[in-house]
Amino acid sequence: MRRLALCLVLLAPLAAAAQVYTYLDHSLRNGAPARTALLVAPDVSVSEISAGGVVEKMPQWSKQARENVGAALRRIGQGPGLHLAALPPLSAEEQHALDQHVALYNVVAANVHSNSVGGGELWEKRLKSGLTDYTVGPGLAFLADKTGADTGLVVIARDAESSGGRKAMFVLGAMFGVGLPLGQSFVVAGLIELRTGRVLWQSFDRSATSDLRVAADADKLVQGLFKSYPAAGEK
Question: pTM of the prediction?
Fold first, then answer.
């Protein structure tokens, strides 16, 4: 799971700090109908980067960030266009299947984002032709059977915070013309059709200054994601 999550971390620097990247399935080109989507528990983690560049996951920081991202999503989920519903209790087998599909979506999301950033004219032509079809497979159909919902929202967030030593090294390096990467935050959300696994909508937002442990920062990043969600009737 940790290795898969790195796919998006490595892609994050490709995104401009103030730009949201969005993918929209051809079926939603004329706007998305109002719908209820199951909110998969957000996959959120926060790490610290040491002076020497060692990345260590911080459980308590991750817990705080998860709560902040979850609260921001609940506020989004009260809107008329996309209402977010909580997952029902799942068996161990069902939870395992869900976890596997979230991990798979992590890889698919990295591919979608890479094409959105660097796909160029060929990517734009494929989008307009309706030939794009990203999917995690039909393995989540049991959630549709269990709840009656037709879609699920998967949210993945990563935050890498620089230690005090890392920041000092950054300043020292800059004095000698050596650039050291500092931490950054990013959030990606994907709306998935449960019976087919098709990705209907994806949005990616990134910040080099936000801290997901801070509620206001998490809320700002999440709000940025959903500005691109296609309300009914929009083109």
Answer: 0.79
